[in-house]
UniProtKB/TrEMBL annotation:
InterPro entries: DUF3473 (IPR022560), Glyco_hydro/deAcase_b/a-brl (IPR011330), NODB_dom (IPR002509), PuuE_HpPgdA-like (IPR045235), XrtA_polysacc_deacetyl (IPR014344). PROSITE patterns: NODB (PS51677). SUPFAM superfamilies: Glycoside hydrolase/deacetylase. It comes from the Bacteria. Pfam families: DUF3473 (PF11959), Polysacc_deac_1 (PF01522). This is DUF3473 domain-containing protein. It comes from Massilia atriviolacea.
Length: 285
């Protein structure tokens, strides 16, 4: 949607609602069957996030796992009561690229119906776990459209060992024409010919805050586009349990600078204008 003359660009603040033991990198060491018996910390972390957003006057989009919503329906209702958008992160944090078309259709349909029943509002958006929609499974976007979703934020146009579609457009586009699903990629910034990840996650915790702020401001000023920022509730939780057996790389990526994350999110709420995905890209009220 066009911005009013003189108004700052509204960027999209997004939260992927999952717990520490559901992270894809931990899948080899944390059995899915053990999830129900593990200490769940997501509810307390979401409360902290809601307080930060309320203090900053920020409305956000919460891409929420059905597995979490089923167990914490009151938490989901508090998200909605705070004026935030409820969107889908699938049901059980299965990568789209690891599912057949039929399995994926069941997962996204189940999660959408569950979230709508609990939250009492239409669910228009979806984000694939681990940004797992790419060149090899673009059919997933058709499935989402058929299931009633209006947009996806599942493609990260960078090269990464776990995800990424480097040749994808950097900004919102219709992969199958204007009558299809809108895809809103995670933000990247250009430095010369090099594409830099600028949309959050482990990069945001690892890099100096000033660099992340510079990249997002560059996207706003040079490209004239909103930035899409994402983070997880467990990233504000340095006291979370630490399962054994993870590789050094996985441990570094997951735990680096967790203790600084809350302060950095607070800075973001002050340094940029933010809103929900549906309002920015679909023009909803």
């Amino acid at each position: 949607m066009p911005r009013a003359l003189g108004q700052p660009i509204r960027n999209a603040m997004t939260i992927d609602v999952e717990d520490y033991f559901q992270v894809s990198a931990f899948a080899p060491i944390i059995a899915r069957a053990s999830w129900p018996s593990r200490e769940c910390r997501v509810e307390a972390n979401i409360e902290r996030i809601l307080a930060i957003l309320a203090a900053g006057g920020v409305h956000a989009t919460f891409f929420t796992l059905g597995w979490i919503a089923e167990r914490y329906p009151d938490m989901v209702r508090r998200i909605v009561a705070g004026g935030h958008e409820l969107a889908s992160h699938g049901y059980g944090h299965l990568r789209a690229s690891d599912q057949t078309r039929a399995e994926f259709a069941d997962d996204v349909g189940r999660s959408k119906a569950l979230l709508e029943d609990i939250g009492g509002q239409r669910v228009l958006g979806y984000r694939a776990p681990s940004f797992s929609i790419g060149t090899a499974n673009l059919w997933a976007l058709d499935v989402l459209h058929e299931a009633g979703y209006r947009y996806s934020s599942s493609i990260y146009p960078i090269a990464h060992d776990h995800y990424g579609m480097p040749d994808a457009p950097r900004f919102a586009f219709f992969p199958n024409g204007p009558d299809g699903l809108l895809e809103v990629p995670i933000t990247t910034a250009m430095l010369g010919r090099r594409k830099l990840p600028a949309g959050g996650g482990g990069y945001f915790r690892l890099l100096p805050y000033s660099l992340s702020r510079w990249m997002m401001r560059r996207v706003n000023s040079e490209d004239g586009q909103p930035a899409i920022f994402y983070f997880h509730p467990w990233e504000l939780d340095p006291g979370q349990p630490r399962p054994g057996g993870a590789s050094l790389k996985t441990r570094f990526r997951h735990y680096v600078n967790l203790q600084r994350m809350e302060g950095r999110i607070k800075l973001l709420t002050r340094d940029f204008a933010w809103d929900r995905m549906d309002r920015i890209f679909l023009g909803t009220q």
